[in-house]
Every structure is written in C-alpha cells, then in structure tokens.
Design goal:
alpha/beta, four-stranded parallel β-sheet, globular
Length: about 375
C-alpha cells in the first residue's frame, strides 16, 4: 500500500482531508466547566425551552451535511458509500475553502428512497442544510423533493442545481457575447440524468427559445413510450420543434450544445450547428467533443475541466448558495434564489467578456461574495428568510 503514495493524489489523501478543531480554549478547570459540565447544562436547558436558540449557541446554523449513497460518483458510477467518501470529503473541503461553511461528509449504506429520506430526516437536527451528492437518477429527484417537503432547512442536490446555476450563468454571457438573448437560442442537451434534467428545467424557466433533451436512445419527445415519469414531464415541456432521432441529428442548425451524458459527438455534428454556436462539453474527464476540435466551429467552448478556459465548475455555485441561505437561516432554496446566484455569477465577468472568459474562475475572490449577497437578498424577497 505504501507504493500508492508515489502517486501525489494518494499522498494528499492519506489520513483524509478533514479534521474537527475546537473554537474555544480548554486550558483549565474553569474552561472545562463552561465548555462541558456544568456550564453546558444551562445552554441545553435554554435550548430545550426555545429550540431556535440552537442556531445561536451551537454550530448548527453554520454546518451542512454532504450526503451520498455512492451510486453516481463523478464519472465512476455506482461505486458504493466507502469509495464515495474521498469525494464527499473534497466537497466539504470546498465548502470551507470558498465560503467558510463547515460541512460533514456522510456516506450512507442504503439506496432505497424511503431509507435515504428517513436517514436524512433523522440526522437533520444536527445541521443547518443538506447537500445531496452523487445519488443516481431518477431516485435523486424523489429524494430531494421529499426532503424539501419534510425539512425546514435548505436541501440542495448539487449535481442538479449547482450545475444548472453555473450553466445558466455561462450561457447568459455567451449569448451576450454573440449579441443574442436566451430567447433567441435553440439548445440541445445531451443527457437526461440529474444534471441534464436540472439544466434543462433552469434554461426553460430562464426563457430559452427552445430546447431538446436527449438520452441514450435519442431525443426525448412525447411520442416515445419508454420514458420514466421525469422524462415524460420533460417531453411535455421541451422540444417545440418536434425533433426525434439521435443527438447529432438534433444539433443541425442548433445554437447551443450542452453535453452532460458521457457520450461522444462528432466534429461533423458540431460543424452543422448554427453560426456563432456555443458548445458546453461538460463530461469529465473526457468531454463529449475535444475542445480544440469544437473550437474550429463554435464561437464559445466550455468544459468541466480546469485545464481549458471556461470551466463549468459547481464550486462556483454551491458554497455561496449555502452560505447565503445559512446567513439568513432560510427554510429552503427557491428557484428565484438559484437564478439570483446565476445572475450574480454572470455579472462577475462584466466588461471582460470574451470567447475564453464567459464564466469566472473559482479562485476569483469576487465570486463567493457576489453569490452569497444575491442569494441572501433573494431569500428575504421570497419570504423564506428567518433572520
């Protein structure tokens, strides 16, 4: 096993990436009597009488649970809860690094929807928010919907909404660069899993001109009889052009391609898109089309990778979204709050907009503060803030 540490990734992960550190000193008996018994009993009694005080006198209001069942981890698929832990630790690290949010990785050994929901509900009193992560579709939709109904704290499936927020922000800027609005664009989204559905829904709500969504069997439309409930609903709300057939066929004349499927798209299909086309090939580690190849034909190219310009990275969204929601003790994260996050993210680019700069870097220090402020403000406007 020692030889694994020759790989810098293994060396970095040895012993894990997180620790718990105290925020108060315990140097003597007086400190101990305040931090623990008997002083702690006075705090417990006050919270028992007024449960809202838990937000002021414990860490609850600043801590998020990062919950996964390990069934859809990165591009690795169903690798189980133990193998998912390095990713969940990484997620918690990013919460802290980019928005000062404490997060606890929780990988649960159950995949049944009822069991997941029950487990999270029972854990919820210890947390100010729940970040669902890497739960496979279509179960992830039901899990999130039920938890949102049962809990009065933010529940956010990042694979869905984090991706959608960043895609919307980047697409707004790409459209602006090419002198168009979202309403002028026809888009094709390859992938009808968690991120594909959420991106499509968010683009619809934002006013995209038309959008066709495809899965492994081709474009989703109302004439298909092999669709689950989520895809049937999507078929009713998309594809005004009535397209059918494979993804590449739908790309002919399209303005936008968003790849979230892990599939491949040929250079010929990209070349057949409309002038000033926009290609977001977001599958990792291998985009649907090589960015250099796409760049021969598209005006704007984005990927999910950090070694190319225009990285569509969820870390641009989820830390600030949760920080903003926690700061006002929001009961939920509304659609308006997600749109506000996207608009704030897009605005960071400002007048520096260019083909290779439609979305800021995660290390741009303006990102988190802009998203935090926008989300908190919108929570108050939507009436879901308790502070």
């Amino acid at each position: 096993m020692q030889s694994l540490d020759l790989d810098p990734a293994f060396a970095l992960h040895r012993g894990g990436k997180l620790e718990v550190r105290s925020t108060v000193p315990v140097h003597d008996a007086d400190d101990l009597s305040l931090a623990y018994t008997p002083g702690v009993a006075r705090v417990c009694t006050a919270i028992a009488g007024n449960p809202d005080l838990v937000n002021d006198y414990t860490w609850v209001s600043n801590v998020v649970a990062v919950v996964s069942d390990g069934t859809a981890v990165l591009g690795l698929g169903d690798i189980g809860p133990a193998a998912a832990m390095p990713v969940m630790e990484g997620k918690a690290l990013l919460f802290k690094q980019f928005a000062g949010v404490d997060a606890v990785p929780i990988c649960i050994d159950c995949t049944d929807v009822d069991a997941i929901v029950e487990t999270v509900v029972r854990l919820a009193p210890s947390f100010g928010g729940i970040n669902l992560e890497d739960i496979s579709a279509p179960r992830c939709f039901e899990v999130e919907e039920r938890l949102r109904a049962l809990l009065d704290i933010p529940v956010f499936h990042d694979d869905q909404h984090g991706t959608a927020i960043v895609v919307l922000a980047a697409l707004r800027n790409a459209a602006r660069l090419t002198g168009r609005s979202l309403g002028d664009l026809r888009a094709v989204v390859a992938g009808a899993g968690a991120s594909g559905v959420a991106v499509s829904r968010m683009l619809l709500n934002a006013g995209i001109g038309d959008i066709a969504v495809s899965d492994s069997k081709g474009v989703i439309h109302t004439g298909r009889e092999d669709l689950n409930a989520v895809k049937r609903a999507l078929a009713r709300d998309t594809n005004k052009a009535g397209l059918s057939g494979p993804t590449e066929q739908a790309l002919a004349g399209a303005d936008v391609f968003v790849g979230l499927s892990g599939s491949t798209v040929s250079e010929q299909a990209i070349a057949a898109m409309a002038p000033d086309s926009i290609v977001f090939a977001l599958s990792n580690p291998t985009p649907e089309v090589d960015p250099a190849v796409a760049g021969r034909h598209a005006r704007v190219v984005a990927t999910g990778r950090s070694d190319y310009p225009n990285q569509i990275n969820n870390v641009l969204a989820f830390p600030g979204v949760f920080r903003g929601a926690l700061d006002v003790r929001a009961t939920t994260i509304t659609e308006n709050m997600k749109v506000a996050a996207a608009d704030a993210l897009a605005a960071v680019v400002g007048n520096d907009l260019a083909e290779t700069y439609v979305i800021p870097s995660p290390f741009d220090t303006r990102v988190a503060s802009a998203v935090i402020a926008a989300v908190a403000r919108q929570a108050r406007e939507d009436g879901v803030a308790r502070k």
